[in-house]
Write a structure and sequence with these properties.
The protein has helices at 20-31, 43-53, 70-84, 107-135, 147-150, 156-176, 194-199, 204-213, 222-233; strands spanning 11-15, 35-40, 60-64, 89-92, 138-143, 181-188, 244-247. It has 266 residues and is of the alpha/beta class. The protein has one domain: 3-Layer(aba) Sandwich (Rossmann fold), CATH 3.40.50.720. It binds NADP nicotinamide-adenine-dinucleotide phosphate.
């Protein structure tokens, strides 16, 4: 449906674009003609990802930037405006997370996740958003998680921060519609990446248990998320703002009172 070059010559900035879903989204955009900027803290990771993404034939700019530090975020924006003149899309994807019961979570642990996810998303949206206002519009897409509203024991820091990002998505959508800026979110469920395979569902039994809890009975793949991203970047969604697309195989709607009875069993 989507023209294979519909992002030709646009600049898409992706925080956390050096790994996992961010890298996969960067590849999907580059494959449709977009120039890409990826931001993260590790230079070597960004450079290696930039090398891979540039195989699609567009320019890829790796930027060492910690989204928790407003000055670094502003430097990133200034550098990109200097190089390209405008930023067409910002994907706030950078995040940190770890599983910890709320009663054991330290102030540092809370702050580190909230600073990346909630504050970092605002710093980037504010800095890039102002250039979009000046340049006549743009698109912002925030990567959240279904536990922003559905809850998930063990990640009170991340769930609270993602819920804040969802509120930010809707608030900025309402404020910035008049500037032709659309602000939407994507909430992935359990998506298999190198990182999640290593840290979250390392063994086969764990994966099997997870699979049984997902009504579609499969994990998501990075392309499932990238496809929704492409839709939100395209004109097919140009009357959609302040919305969240859930990409979880029915995962959160399948969480119910009768969870003990495996209703998804054949
Ligand atoms: P990931 O591979 O761990 O990606 C996180 C990225 O964020 C890394 O590239 C990391 O790079 C970057 N980052 C972390 N702290 C940063 C900081 N302070 N400044 C700049 N960049 C920073 O995780 P993922 O699984 O692909 O997740 C991507 C997004 O999807 C996240 O927002 C996550 O919450 C969301 N999500 C994922 C899943 C899933 O199942 N995979 C499910 C729900 C939601 P550096 O460490 O080099 O900075």
């Amino acid at each position: 449906m989507l023209d294979s070059t519909f992002l030709k010559d646009r600049l898409v900035v992706i925080t956390g674009g050096g790994t996992g879903l961010g890298k996969s989204m960067a590849e999907a955009c580059a494959a449709r003609g977009a120039h890409i900027a990826i931001a993260g803290r590790r230079k070597d990771v960004l450079e290696s990802a930039a090398h891979d993404i540039s195989k699609h034939g567009t320019t890829v700019t790796p930027i060492t930037c910690d989204v928790r530090i407003p000055e670094q975020v502003q430097n990133m924006t200034d550098m990109l405006i200097g190089k390209y003149g405008r930023i067409d899309a910002l994907i706030n994807n950078a995040a940190g997370n770890f599983i910890c019961p709320a009663e054991n979570l330290s102030v540092n642990g809370w702050n580190s996740v909230v600073n990346i996810v909630l504050n970092g998303t605002f710093y980037c949206s504010s800095s890039v958003g102002k250039t979009m206002i000046k340049n006549g519009g743009g698109t912002i897409i925030n990567i959240v998680a279904t536990y922003a509203w559905a809850s998930e024991p063990g990640v009170v820091h991340s769930a609270s921060a993602k819920a804040g990002v969802l509120a930010m998505t809707r608030t900025l959508a309402a404020e910035w519609a008049k500037y032709h800026i659309r602000v939407n979110a994507i909430a992935p469920g359990a998506i298999r990446t190198e990182g999640t395979d290593k840290n979250l569902w390392g063994d086969e039994n764990q994966r099997e248990r997870m699979n049984r809890r997902i009504p579609m009975r499969r994990f998501g793949q990075p392309d499932d998320v990238s496809n929704s991203l492409l839709f939100l970047l395209s004109d097919y969604s140009n009357y959609i703002t302040g919305e969240v697309i859930t990409v979880d195989g029915g995962g959160w709607v399948g969480k119910g009172t009768y969870e003990m009875v495996d209703v998804t069993k054949d």
